Amino acid sequence: MSLILKTFCLVSMALFLLVAWSGGRAEMSVSGLNDRQTANVMALSPLASTGCDSARWRIERLFRNADQDIVTALRALGYYEPTISKSLRWSDACWHADFTVDAGKPVRLRTVDIQLDGDAADDPAFIARSEALRPKAGDVFDHGQYESFKAALLRAATNAGFFEAEYESSKVLVDKEDRAADLAMHLQSGARYRFGEVSFTQGILRDRLLQGYTDIRPGEQYSSRAINELYEALSGSGYFATVAIDTEPLDTEHNIVPVNVQLVPAKRSVYSAGAGFSTDLGPNGRLGYVNRRINDRGHQFEGKLFASPVNSELNFSYRWPKKDPRHEWFSIVSGLKHEKTDTSEQDSFKLGFRRSRNLGEKWLQTRYLDYLYEDYTVADQESTSQLIIFGTNWETARGRALSRAVAGFRLNVDVRGAAEALGSDTSFLQLQLKTKWVRSLTDRTRLLARATVGMTMKDRLAELPASVRFFAGGDNSVRGYEFESLGPVDADGEVIGGSNQLDASLEIDRLFGEQWAIAAFVDTGDAFDEADIDLYTGVGVGVRWYSPVGPLRLDFAHPLDNPDENLRIHISLGPDL
Hints:
16% of the residues lie in helices and 46% in strands. The protein has 7 helices and 25 strands. It has helices at residues 3-23, 35-44, 56-75, 124-133, 143-159, 207-211, 224-235; strands spanning 27-31, 83-90, 95-102, 108-117, 166-175, 180-188, 194-200, 240-246, 256-265, 269-278, 282-291, 300-307, 311-321, 328-340, 344-359, 363-378, 381-398, 408-418, 428-440, 445-457, 500-511, 516-528, 536-547, 550-559, 568-573.
């Protein structure tokens, strides 16, 4: 067979299949309606789901009855006077029905009369809730929305503790001539139930501690929100593998709701291990141990070991809840740290006390007192330092996600200081502010901004140990420059760190595929003394992989202030916020 003949056969077959496919698909088209009206018509019309293999007599019958189907579908949305024109045509393989519909003018609510009886009639909160839910005079009378309102009002009554609520009457009178509807409903709420005793599974934690996870008190009015808050608080405590709350059976004689909380303890001891790599720290490994429940008072212990060529730490913490474990905790911390960079070297020991508490629902405040002993070298300066540091940290975050955050921000403010009069080798007052902001520009494109501001009040920088000086440069500072390589220098040109810091970053990234993104960024910043700031800037591009353990970033950055320098590669792992 010649090439021309083969080509002719293939083209002919393709055209045959195309014609057969285009002519073999049943189609019901509706024009003249909005999307919601069209969707309801298609959902309620048997013709729309009829295939080409149905008998012709059946299709013609469904086509004849389609007018009534359309009327029924539009009436459910408040349109009682549609005008319909239609046609049915046949091809060799199937049928095609076309409908042009004018929905007409809608029926609107003329009066809305909702009567409350029982305890709900004297409950301002429930009355306000019912007013927020109720349809308004002048609204299009949508049967679906009316049924949704009835269900929502009854659900709101149950959530508020009116467990015997029911409709004594509920009716709608439609005046088609005036295109008006009158809605009348009578809800009998019955008595409002109150909370009984809250009981917990015994033998895990002390009842006094468990009671701290809830604001529910016997005799208070029932609220489903209080039950949900108790569930969320216990589930997020870390003490329990499962939480179940049972409010049955109701005491219908005294209108009491019992609250029985069934708890299954979480595994007491948890071990962890991990390994990673970043440009700043090089290859690194970590080990961890957590005892979630040392005793029935809810005390916890945690130990962490982190090791890398640049930074190695061994830290311990012992923490316990106060009266309200949802909002306030105390902890004792201690740790050893060794850090060696191109600019400094330090060995330190820390022992501290923490008091952490939630300020409302948005902020976490931590007040701390640390004893810090440090043996350090910065450039050619070698010294030891002993500090007693008082500080307060405030942190808030929104939109955090393990993988790709689509919108949110993080803000951390830390104020700390030491005084010679209180036993420290030197006096200083320091403020550090860190923030990051993420916004989606489109479904696949984001803008990320980051900034760090640090300020220190101190007579002589040389008396400050390396751990309380500021340095810039690295993965989370100014990419394109080495870790902590930016800052004031001594007479030999070696970086000694500064009393102030300012750096900022702007980045845009775009997804390609489900787990990959490309990014472009510009970073600028420096560590400095007084107002002697000389910003260093780096620009670059990067690739992001959204792995199961968080975003992995590979960045290629060029330092603009050192044009002869090669590109630096930065690798980092961790959440966006």
